[in-house]
Amino acid sequence: MGLVRVPKFLKLLFSLLLVLVFTFVAYNNVTSGETFNGVIFSIAVLVAFSFLIKETLTTTKKKSFLKKEVLLDSFIIERLKTSLSLSYLYLIIHLSIAIFANNDLGAFEDSVIFALFVSFNIFMIAQIFQAFFYNSKE
To answer: For the whole model, what pTM was predicted?
Structure first.
């Protein structure tokens, strides 16, 4: 797989779409009575929106809306593969043990939710570790 290049305005448009989705989630949490989650998502929206405004202003000053930017290259894809494989390995091991450990369907559903949560955390930690590891090599 080669390089994935997209114009800068598409990247900014996708970021705006994600900010709008998080805004909807924050509003939905506040209206359903989950105030704490609503506040957390609202803070995330404000931070993301401020970064989006900063990036848009920088791009406007440089007049580089149509300039193509590399999103994925082979190095990033290999880092993603490593993190995903570690996450998937944990998920398979955890679910294999959970299948044979208990015959209760409710306990298995809880175990699946926990396994997905921990698997996602393993992916994030592997990404952070690889970022520190590869930056320290340079």
So the answer is: 0.61
